Amino acid sequence: MRNTILSIFIISTILLGVLVYFVPDKGTIILLVLSSLFTIIVIKDSFQTKHSLLRSFPLVARLRWLFEEEREKIQQYFIEDDLNGRPINREKRSVVYQRAKLQKDTVPFGTQHDVYKKGYEFVKHSLFPKDHHHITGEKIIFGSDKCSKKYKSSIINISAMSFGSLSKNAIMALNQGAKMGGFAHNTGEGGISPYHLQGGDLIFQVGTGYFGAGKSVDGKRVFDDEIFRENAIRPEVKMIEIKFSQGAKPGHGGILPAKKNTPEIAKIRKVPQGTQVDSPPGHSAFSNFEEMIVFIQKVRDLSGGKPVGVKLCVGNNEEIQQMIKAFSKAKNYPDFISVDGGEGGTGAAPMEFTNYIGTPLLEGLVFINKLLKKYKLKNQIRIIASGKAIDAFDIVKYLALGADAIGMARSFMLSLGCIQARECNLDSCPVGVATQDEDLVKALVVEKKNIRVRNYHDKTIQAVKEMVAAMGEDSITKVTSDQVFRRRKDEEIVSLEEVYY
Ligand SMILES: Cc1cc2nc3c(=O)[nH]c(=O)nc-3n(C[C@H](O)[C@H](O)[C@H](O)COP(=O)(O)O)c2cc1C
Fold this sequence. Notes:
By secondary structure, the protein is an alpha/beta fold. The chain is built from 18 helices and 17 strands.
């Protein structure tokens, strides 16, 4: 094939050269220039030794690469229907955009879901629905008997995403939106930046890299009491979250790609700029349950008594049971546990960790809920659930299964204008949400997007209230797993209570 393509281009160029000699007009000259350029590429491709496909199919194989690279865009723009886009389908993405922009969020003609398909889920409504204007339960108090500074928060908060992973404009818009709507914004493991300090309530996350909470000693990241305290006592910080693991890459630790590690981010994290920053997989501050409990209490004390939680994706069940048992035995425990599902999002993760490690949210959430009940800690430890919560049904379902509040990351990214380009790990996010490229970041106008963040939160709370009202309850806190149903087999519908409890 190579020789054929080579011959075609060389002969065409020679013939065009002859033509230009006899008819030297603009058109023939342009054709000759183009043909010469393509011939040079064909010759180059034919004799390079790196890519065998290109050696066999010079120039032509480049088209395949182009389609391969743009495959996702072609899929999203031309092939994807409302329900098959991944990880977040178009129907869910659209509802976020509509609620964020206060656009019409009704759908015409009827559901597109196949209600007879295995796995289809729904809630049952009451003959006596309530008035959604009077539904309560959208706020919740965090803080067990171990903590002196309790925090009243919304049941929907922005889950952890760092400055580094997200742009400064994205962080500012999220924080300002949180301030407007009276909900909380989790800093992510990258520490507190000036962009987080826009007046919105913060959940200060302490990851294994201890950014903003520690330093490097002999190449090892270690927790530092004073560095942590300085940040934790800020008035904006309402709660602390110690990250054990994250659903998208449990047992791995955060990854900040080198391209996104700008001088400013390197300064905030106190790491060398322009290098890939990998947080360690585990904490250096503790190595067993007893030390873990001491660490949680230390963090609580250093913060001045603020609620302290731990974030994890359920892994080894036996270990987690041991942990909860240890909390119960010591009569000392975190104020909340954030359960992240294996389906959770990330800026960058190894493929195997994203696809094959970590318990999915429903099973993880139910497992933690059962353990808290078993060890009589359910009234002390709140559960925050995160994992593709986008619309009111997702939220009601997670609350029904035992969550007290919901952490949402990617849906808030969508509210900022994310188009699911899936380039968060490349620094080329075309809408300026998950990049540090100054030109792209500028495109995200904080003063417009902060309102969308607030709107999305508020409209989603409203949608939750409407759903709960239709179910005949007067408070969001009253939904239970026997009110949510799933088609398990062709002719069998079961409640999630039967499935999980
Ligand atoms: C861009 C991005 C960055 C994230 N950064 C962090 C992080 O720093 N710490 C963390 O615990 N989780 C992080 N996460 C995970 C989210 O906090 C959340 O647990 C997960 O995405 C599930 O929520 P979602 O399905 O609503 O996105 C990140 C997620 C995304 C999409």
